[in-house]
Design a protein that fits this description.
Number of strands: 3
Shape: globular
Largest sheet: 3 strands, mixed
Radius of gyration: 13 Å
Helix content: 25-40%
Structural class: alpha+beta
CATH class: Alpha Beta
Strand order of the largest sheet: 1-2-3
């Protein structure tokens, strides 16, 4: 799985997948999962039809652990051209507040 790419390295479909990921919010924190740093990686096949998302949660005992992967899968499946999506929950490295984007840190008053 490739690491999360910088904006200049992304294709159009990758940008659309990221936009879809930004519609999924952690219900306990008013910030989307992309800006929270919960998405550790995404892989899109060469045919641009299949996406695999590697992500974590803010804590293993997160109350939406059973639901959030499905939310992510549904959001990415809504991207035109993507037919199939797998979401893999991973716990390494453990998520921490340092993974939050500067933009979200500002929104959460963490700067």
């Amino acid at each position: 799985m490739s690491s999360v790419m910088q904006p200049a390295e992304r294709s159009d479909i990758e940008n659309r997948v990221i936009s879809a990921l930004k519609t999924v919010y952690d219900p306990e924190i008013p910030v989307d999962i992309w800006e929270l740093g919960l998405v550790y990686g995404m892989q899109i096949d060469e045919a641009r039809r299949y996406a695999k998302i590697s992500m974590t949660l803010t804590a293993p005992a997160c109350p939406v652990a059973g639901s959030m992967p499905e939310w992510v899968q549904n959001a990415v499946r809504g991207v035109e051209g993507i037919d199939d999506v797998d979401v893999e929950l991973v716990w390494e490295p453990p998520w921490n507040q340092e993974m939050i984007s500067p933009r979200a840190r500002l929104e959460l008053n963490l700067l």
